[in-house]
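BUG: 3D viewer hangs when loading the predicted structure for this chain

Environment: internal workstation, default settings.
Expected: structure renders.
Actual: progress bar stalls at 90%.

Input used:
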Amino acid sequence: MLRLLPCLLAATLAACAAPPPPPAVAQNLFLDARFAPPAQAIDEAAVFALSEPMRHYLSADLAAGIRRDGALQALVDALYRDRSLRIDYDNTRTYTAAEAFAARHGNCLSLVIMTAALGRALGLQVQFQAVDVDGSWSHSGDLLVQSDHVNLVLAQADIDRRQGYFAADSYTVDFLPSRQAQRLASHVIPEARVLAMYLNNRAAEALASGDAEQAYWWVRAALVRDPGYGAAVNTLGVVYLRHGDLDAARTALKTLLALDADNRHALNNLAIVYERQGLPALAKALRARLASLDPERPYQYFFEGRAAMARGDYRAARASFEREVRRADYCGECHFWLGLAELHLGELEQARREIAVALQNSTNADEYALYAGKLKHLQQRFVN
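Structure tokens produced before the viewer hung:
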């Protein structure tokens, strides 16, 4: 699932994974009476459920490949080689297995869930893994979201091994846009954690849309499913903060910090709580500690660049955006704004290059359309 202008709340989004889990937290963090009943029912059983189109795909479209190469190879080929599934990465929202299959896109958690559902329907073994990679950051308004990473391993089931397959017959399926994750260490996580990630993602997405009421029920479900999921405890604190329940936010965040004293998200969010409760000394102490742990805040230079752009100081904006892309080269939005700064400075070729990089790093259809349109306009100007 923010800390700038004047302050932003931080949430952790498992668009792909999560921080190391703390011990289970107390269920008395919940305050159901303060929230209206959920407008959208939370159906956990639907997360991994197969739709009829998915069943038809397995029994019809994939049938020839299964007969020829076996279930494991046929599914891997559909994802990677012949791309008969035609699945694209898109971080707009987190989908159930059926939703991702219907949309033919999703963030990596959605695609992992979809692939697991298909694999199990084919009788394959499924193992979920959290990948040990520094999470990337994105933002929605004043909400900063850190996305870490999960993938899964598909393997032949016991019945297939008796027909001549072996334990070595397995594939790691990874939907990270970068291939770097395939070389990184990972650790096994249970399905309960993956389901909690899905629920926590939906909570963070509801927060980003301004719906703290619905976000509460999503994150509550995540913690009921996996009480030790620290990212969801932080999200619960953010929900309470957004809802105006400052004492409850303080309790949730202090609970997480008692288990994970260096949790950057909780430190930042608790500092915001203290500031809103009129306790500036406590907030200052937390911010000092946070600065010692994390001297450069996520999106710090991006927001400085945006401020410089707003006041017309395009050289300062370019310098700030350059600093941001040096540490977050994956950030398409950062490259895009660097390109805009270059454009204002009359550097058309540099602007074109940066916006081309932004296009390559776009993570959803809306971003792609925006960057592609600006790039086309620049290319026309450059030719003319």
